[in-house]
Design brief:
The structure is a homodimer of 815-residue chains.
Chain A: E1 17-18, H1 27-49, H2 76-93, E2 96-101, H3 107-117, H4 119-123, H5 131-140, H6 168-176, E3 182-189, H7 196-201, E4 215-222, H8 238-248, E5 250-256, H9 260-288, E6 296-302, E7 312-313, E8 316-317, H10 336-347, H11 351-354, H12 362-368, E9 410-412, H13 413-427, E10 432-436, E11 454-455, E12 470-471, E13 476-478, H14 482-494, E14 498-504, H15 512-526, E15 537-542, H16 560-565, E16 572-575, H17 580-592, E17 597-601, E18 606-608, H18 613-622, E19 624-626, E20 640-645, H19 647-663, E21 669-674, H20 692-699, E22 705-709, H21 713-720, E23 729-732, H22 743-749, H23 754-763, H24 769-793, H25 799-802, H26 806-814
Parallel strand pairs in A: 2-3, 3-4, 4-6, 5-6, 10-13, 10-14, 11-12, 14-15, 15-17, 16-17, 20-21, 20-22, 22-23
Antiparallel strand pairs in A: 1-5, 7-8, 9-18, 19-21
Keywords (chains A, B): Lyase, Thiamine pyrophosphate
GO molecular function (chains A, B): aldehyde-lyase activity
Protein name (chains A, B): Phosphoketolase
């Protein structure tokens, strides 16, 4: 099958076994790599253990050891080994590269390299390249108020924290799209490789164009163990392992063993082969203009977990077993023998010689490390804000829906917006992409294909010409994996570009945890002085709950907003534009913003349109407002506030106003609409929040409020429980009541239909007395008639759709 | 490399190409299969299109066609083909099998089979096997108030709805674990195959024991297209495809083409080969007692999407293209030619001949369909509640932590509970499993290995003997994929068994969407008369936010509770036991319950213990209660209520009471503790909810309440906004403020530490005047001292941990 058939053993021990043969390093070079490896490992242990005596200039004593031992050693040796050998190729070929650390808690590896390369001291001058600096560098690691054990935003060169596992490969691909010179060297832990998101992200090669994109060089690190278990990929046969990656579309090159000298040669030769192949494929494609999908190279690096640690401690396996996962010797504070063992282990890395002047020798550094921005820890790509250019924006007003008669014009907001989106794509052909899990066309955004087709590097069939919209070079990225789409988009944004993810609303929960983690990243990044702000991560949700009546209960879940609303107000924004012009205004605002996660909820079907473009801009800028044209209170204190948030809930709320005025033409009803959800919360808790005074100005302090909401109703309560008059606030929304329904029936189940809203309002106005009861009954009968018609025919009565608001409002105003 | 090298084409067209050769079917049998295939396809189209004239006894007119056309045809032909050919083997080998329909919206396939097998009419007598029954069967499909286009709970034989894609394989494995005779025939859509959860679930073979478990026979259906895109796996080379599955550990057998007759032979021969291989591997293992991991067979079935539909309509591709994904001809209501086309297409399936008596002939049915519970649509395994046996339970009281001095005893609740869990395992060795993503040991549950080790069918190394706890037959399932663990557990439960998932709290968000979908399944199942209740899905969350201080911000997210709380009150339960005996009581309760998703949150570190076992049982049974032993109100109206929910928040709240009483010995403080979160909500909204009267009895109607909560504080507000006196409720919880901290510092950031709580309480009691200010300042200084000590040493001052509550409470009581 391939070169690796000769390799039988799946042990991490022994002299190097590798697919690529060759001894590219001289004896002298090997010595240098040995020294650098030792220096790096010393730093990794120092971070975990020492709070003082960083160079072991004195005998190691308890007082030098941290009171609480934290950090992970297990994957550090393999990662360091990879990093430093790739540096050789950066220097030799002048490569533009970043390093992505997939294994969990891999910070000791990357921090040690950033420190040795000098980047760390440059961005954090107190962590200087001297004894004091090293002491602070050690002490701050996993120490209160210090830095994390992951490749957090504080880590120079990092775009991937790896706190939650699974996204290294999709992040790496996101980084290299439209960065044709970039190589993302990506170490994937064999634990991480078991996650679903990682397991499918290998297929990203079917979306990578060798002409316009850079390359990802994955190093699958068969470290052998997770926290407390062997890893699957380290315990299957060579044949299976090789087959798996050939199946995924990669050419795996194996490097296995623990004999350091031969491993130096093997990894050096292998990485070089990979770089040469990458450059060859890119050159072929770029010279010929033909974008093919080669079998991109991938390294399988098998080394013992905790490589170079003592093999056994107290007759229990440490190196090459899961015991070396975290702090390798845990009881040095309690066990003097183990403290001694630690000291002798650390001294085996020769700190005296290697850090003679409290830093590695200039000669060693110059020989092995790239300089300036060629250092992977200093590549500006990994500080995307610094290289980000603003999007070139069409004027969104040019795409306005003409609303001659507010509440009469029918149009599809999403289809209309897609023309604007198409032109955003067209104006930013190398810095904006649209992502989606096979739903872009279904979500009515197909017009974007006029500017950029769907990237496809798989085989082509005859049928594709019949509206397939596929091309090797495109701007739309579609794979049926929300995880991969989100990971690509995050990687793309974090390296200085812009994008939008579109998804069905119910299945966006698939990436709850990824969005959580991205929120955390951008929030922390705000605290890191040297990081510039990146573009916002924009998520457009459509195929919303209220039009998932026919797909049923599984497709009804608007709860992503709850997940997002739990994140820091510094970074999250939620918009529910009520119509097409508001959608345009909101999209424009989101695309121009930085460092947020913007969630936009908008249905994809045809709906009534309410606001002219100028009105929409005013409304969206305020984020919340009274709609006088739909109100009958004429600026006076109203009897009732009918509020809404979300396009479909707004439609029903306006219809309810109409129904109420039909029965009670004298009623003073105020119509309030919310676009920006965080207007509801106090300005103390969110920068967008209203003051209580502003709140009362809109909602009154004592009048009943019937609030029709897009999502779960209690989200509004959680945002408003402190508000004056919150006791009068009656929120309707999705209450997890669904089945195979029509839109009306689904709304009735959840009491968000016009009839229920109007009845609800009547119930809150006891002063209507008998007239109220009579109207209530009439409304109820009307509701039942409409519902029965739907059950008979399978579709809602047309009057529900064609209802127009103005008649009774106008009458009421005249009266 | 394998048999398939000879297959070059990746087109779905042409005579059958297959790995397995042979013509097992006679000409007569082929005719029968042709007839059955046509009858099934006719039903599939009937469901999508017809509301009347089900047998086309009259010419098709518009009035017979549904007003709204819904449903998906694309995957039905391939699924039907697979189902009916597997029936041959069920009959021949008397197999015990279920069918799992992976492709999205695959209901027309499975419903047609359930109807033809007679099961559908048995469970839904109005859908009888006659013209009227068929009319109702057609009309109800995707019709308001009817049945869904997925394999919903209403579908006999289904344990897998497939509304959200990605879980067919993990569900299938869950079903066959500990069901040694069962085969789960599992069709995987090539769209679904792109999802992360599915991509890693193929590795489940490393956890399947051929002696004690049944088998999964996957049929990867290369249908070629998703909604609007080609699929990745249908557009890679044969070599890659075959390698991929060999890499995953399967032996792929290819069956490809669209020529029906040769496809009958090829699929019949291939499925038979697979069944024979499965039986052979099982026999070898069971005879020898040696559980090896064979390369289990897998079928790759490549047929055109919408197979047998017109190849083109109006010169646009339909069959073999994404246009056949959903309703294949969409405009039959508007375009009379297309209505004609539909009619002639439907008649090509020969309804007149095949449904002569309005049902398929007895002869055909008997020849091809299994009977009774051998029908995949009637296998009781897929109605797990009917075969479920109650767990054999140890007496949880036997594992009580002895609490001599409440609030003084220090113990690890989780370690203690693990002995109980071990014995639950031991008593139910074929019907209970523990699942976890490599965290069981870290979560302090390692004692369970004494009863059942971790299932591992990968290679073994020497090191494994050194505490590896691996075995081919075990009871603990660990793979670093929350998705796979959850999918296994769901499959296991839905087929009549019991289990528990343990996970780090922050990363449970990875499976938000899966848990959502399971909640929806069990809620809908309650409405299906013939379904019996299954065991609850139990999720134990630990490594909680308040002890993720050192791992940092990425590891801090208690928001899973918000996601769960959005689901129907019929099915969700959330418990936060404050100590070890409460944890035991809660676990016991959850294991005995049915049809819930129970979420239990408990930290894994050592903590103070408060309640004796009998007190704990009383407290947990009530779910919420006053703790008089920690209160100084002596049953009178208090000045202040200090409430808490969650073990660590309880600890801090009690310490705050102590601090307050130190300063104000006369203060009447009431201590309220919440175990069952839904006690907080109104009894109108949740069956566990308190009445307002009960609420006031605990919390008062007008006194300040300082509520220390485990999760995001607004979750409590959303549950309680309607409560009397809710304006006095001040909730503290995680506010998304984190870093690398100590526990104290993390709590201070979020104002949940004892000092902040006590200061908070003082702020709500203006009547304390100057004494209040002085106490506040003292507390603040104490807080700063503690915090500075932590920053200096890296660990919190010991007094925080060893604090004991009773001194000041006792004093206060005496006074």
């Amino acid at each position: 099958m391939g070169d690796s058939e000769e390799i039988e053993s799946i042990s991490p021990y022994g002299p190097a076994r590798s697919t690529v043969k060759g001894n590219p390093l001289s004896k002298e070079e090997i010595e240098k790599y040995n020294d650098f490896f030792k220096a790096s490992l010393y730093l990794a242990l120092g971070m975990i253990y020492l709070r003082d005596n960083p160079l072991l200039r004195q005998p190691l004593e308890l007082k030098h050891v941290k009171a609480r031992l934290l950090g992970h050693f297990g994957s550090a040796p393999g990662q360091i080994f990879t990093y430093m050998h790739f540096n050789r190729l950066i220097k030799k070929y002048d490569l533009d590269a970043i390093y992505i650390s997939g294994p969990g808690h891999g910070a000791p590896a990357v921090l040690s390299q950033a420190y040795l390369e000098g980047t760390y001291s440059e961005v954090y001058p107190d962590k200087s390249e001297d004894e004091d600096g090293m002491q602070r560098f050690f002490k701050d690691f996993s120490f209160p108020g210090g830095i994390g054990s992951h490749a957090t935003p504080e880590t120079p060169g990092s775009i991937h924290e790896g706190g939650e596992l699974g996204y290294s490969i999709s992040h790496a691909f996101g980084a290299v799209f439209d960065h044709p010179s970039l190589i993302a060297l990506t170490v994937v832990g064999d634990g991480e490789a078991e996650t679903g998101p990682l397991a499918t992200a290998w297929h990203s090669t079917k979306f990578l164009n060798p002409i316009t994109d850079g390359a990802v060089l994955p190093v699958l690190h068969l470290n052998g163990y997770k926290i407390n278990n062997p890893t699957i990929l380290a315990r299957i046969s060579h044949k299976e392992l090789e087959s798996l990656f050939i199946g995924y579309g990669w050419q795996p090159y194996f490097v296995e063993g623990d004999d350091i000298e031969s491993m130096h040669q093997a990894l050096a030769a292998t990485l070089e082969r990979c770089v040469v192949e990458i450059k060859k494929y890119q050159k072929e494609a770029r010279d010929s203009g033909k974008a093919l999908r080669p079998r991109w190279p991938l390294v399988v690096l098998r080394t013992p977990k905790g490589w170079t640690a003592p093999r056994k401690v107290d007759n229990k396996f440490l190196e090459g077993f899961w015991r070396s996962h975290q702090v390798p010797i845990t009881d040095v504070r309690e066990n003097p023998k183990h403290l001694e063992l630690l000291e002798s282990w650390m001294r085996s890395y020769e700190p005296d010689r290697l850090f003679k002047d409290a830093r590695i020798s200039k000669e060693l550094k110059e020989a092995l490390c790239p300089t300036g921005s060629r250092r992977m820890s200093a590549n500006p790509v990994a500080n995307g804000g610094t290289i980000k250019k603003p999007l070139k924006m069409p004027n969104f007003r040019d795409y306005a829906i003409k609303v001659d008669k507010p509440g009469v014009t029918f149009d599809a907001s999403m289809v209309n917006m897609s023309a604007y989106l198409r032109d955003v794509v067209a104006l930013n052909m190398t810095s904006f992409r649209l992502f989606g899990p096979d739903e872009t066309e279904s979500n009515k955004l197909g017009k974007v294909y006029e500017a950029g087709k769907k990237v496809w590097m798989g085989e082509y069939f005859e049928e594709d010409k019949d509206g397939g919209n596929l091309a090797p070079a495109g701007r739309v990225m579609e794979m049926l994996s929300e995880h991969t789409c989100e990971g690509w988009l995050e990687g793309y944004i974090l390296t200085g570009r812009h994008g939008l993810l579109n998804s069905y609303e119910p299945f966006i929960h698939v990436i709850d945890s990824m969005v959580n983690q991205h929120c955390k990243w951008i929030e922390k990044a705000l605290e890191v002085e040297w990081r510039d702000k990146v573009a916002s991560l924009n998520i457009l949700l459509t195929a919303v709950v209220w039009r998932q009546d026919h797909n049923g209960f599984t497709h009804q879940d608007p709860g992503f907003l709850d997940v997002v609303a739990n994140k820091s107000p510094e970074v999250v924004r939620i918009y529910l534009p009520p119509d097409g012009n508001c959608l345009l205004s909101v999209m424009d605002h989101c695309f121009r913003s930085s460092n947020y996660v913007n969630v936009i909820v908008s249905d994809k079907q045809e709906h009534l349109q309410y606001l002219s473009m100028e009105e929409a801009v005013v409304h969206c800028t305020k984020g919340i407002g009274i709609w006088p044209q739909f109100s009958s209170d004429a600026g006076e204190e109203p009897d009732l506030v009918m509020a809404s948030c979300g396009d479909i809930p707004t439609h029903e709320s306006l219809a309810a106003i109409d129904l109420l005025l039909r029965h009670f033409p004298e009623l003073k009803i105020r119509c309030v609409n919310v676009v920006d959800l965080f207007k509801l919360i106090s300005h103390i808790d969110h920068p967008h929040g209203l003051t209580d005074r502003e709140w009362v100005g809109l909602f009154t302090a004592d009048k009943p409020i019937i609030f029709n909401f897009h999502s779960y109703p209690w989200l509004v309560h959680r945002l408003t429980y402190k508000r004056p008059g919150s006791i009068n606030l009656h929120v309707r929304g999705y209450k997890e009541k669904g089945n195979i329904d029509t839109p009306l029936e689904l709304a009735i189940r959840n009491q968000t239909d016009r009839f229920s809203l109007a009845m609800d309002a009547i119930d809150r106005m006891p002063h209507l007395h008998n007239r109220g009861s009579a109207a209530r009954e009439a409304l109820h009968n009307e509701q039942i008639r409409a519902r029965n018609e739907a059950y008979e025919t399978g579709i809602d009565p047309p009057f529900l759709k064609n209802w127009t608001w103005q008649e009774n409002v106008t009458k009421a105003k005249k009266a």
